[in-house]
Amino acid sequence: MEEKNGSTKTYLETLTLGVSKLLETSPGVTDVNFREKQPAERHMIVSWELKNKCMLPEDLKNFYLMTDGFHMTWSVKFDDYSIQLGSMVINSISKLNRLGSSSMYSLPNAPSLADLDDDIEEQEREKPHFDSRNLIFELDSCNGYGKVCLVYKVSKAGVLLPDTEIWFLDRALYWHFITDTFTAYYRLLITHLGLPQWQYTFTSYGVSPQTKQWFNMYKPVTFNPVLLSEETEAFLNNLDPSKVFKSKCKTPVIKKKLPAQPPGSQKGHTSTVTSKRPTRK
Q: Considering the entire predicted model, what is its pTM?
């Protein structure tokens, strides 16, 4: 990674929850690249919401107001060659496209995604559908091995429900639930270091043997479903993702002026101003 000034490095470490610094000091890791993106303009978000007739979740909206998408990669060195291994991606607002709204092919009468859908439920949660029951948007194309999607539900009365979910769509068009919120998904993306096919840890068939080898080298407990939640929770206890996704529109604080007291009335009362004393080393 190119040398950056202090403010840019602080921004990077905050956005990546400190993982960028961890990668830079990991053995064998090279070429940690982060594509810095400008914040999305508010009118772009409003335009997206009007076009798709739905409101972005507040945490995802605040994320776009801080950076219009996210792209970070890192490589490992073998002999004299460097190969890209980790990839962390969140599509920009302009590439947050809806799935299932058009045919898969350009041939006449070709099946759409809705035609290939089924109503077989194999999970406790109702899986997404490509028809009018859901609105589905692509957050990450996962380098071709699936898609991470933001999913809205539509009630039987045709009303769009406010709560969203994050699901993984594999190449066989099977759905796998990941988490309830974008913030939680972002945490998982960072804590898994963007390792190849890490989303398959949330499927019934799990990750490939090759992927397990990468996990053993760079994150041994990631693929273990028993330790996954404990590890992620322990990692996040020292972080505050709400500061990453905070909105730039701050609510003004109105300071109330206290009524003046007579000089004699202050006797016997403890001051609310705490004095700062130097810390003893």
A: 0.73
In tens, the pLDDT along 3-12 reads 455 555 667 7
Residue 254 domain flag: no
One-character DSSP codes across 52-83: HTSPPPHHHHHHHHH-S-EEEEEEEEETTEEE
Q: Is residue 250 part of a domain?
A: no
- The answer to whether residue 202 sits within a structural domain is yes
Question: How many angstroms separate the CA atoms of 140 and 153, rounded?
Answer: 20
Which residue do the tokens 């993984």 mark? 168
Q: How many domains does one find in the chain?
A: 1
Q: Which range among 4-18, 71-85, 251-265, 267-281 shows the weakest confidence by mean pLDDT?
A: 267-281
> Has residue 80 been placed in a domain?
yes
CA 270-273-279 angle, to 5 degrees, is 110
Task: Measure Cα distances from 177 to 27, 74, 110, 122, 236 in Å.
Answer: 33, 27, 28, 11, 21
Q: Which residues are bridge partners to 75 per DSSP?
A: 30, 84
Which domain range does residue 181 map to?
6-103+119-245
Report residue 247 CA to chain centroid gap.
16
* CB atoms inside a 10 Å sphere around CB 216: 12
Q: What is the mean pLDDT of the chain?
A: 77
CATH number at residue 155: 3.40.1580.10
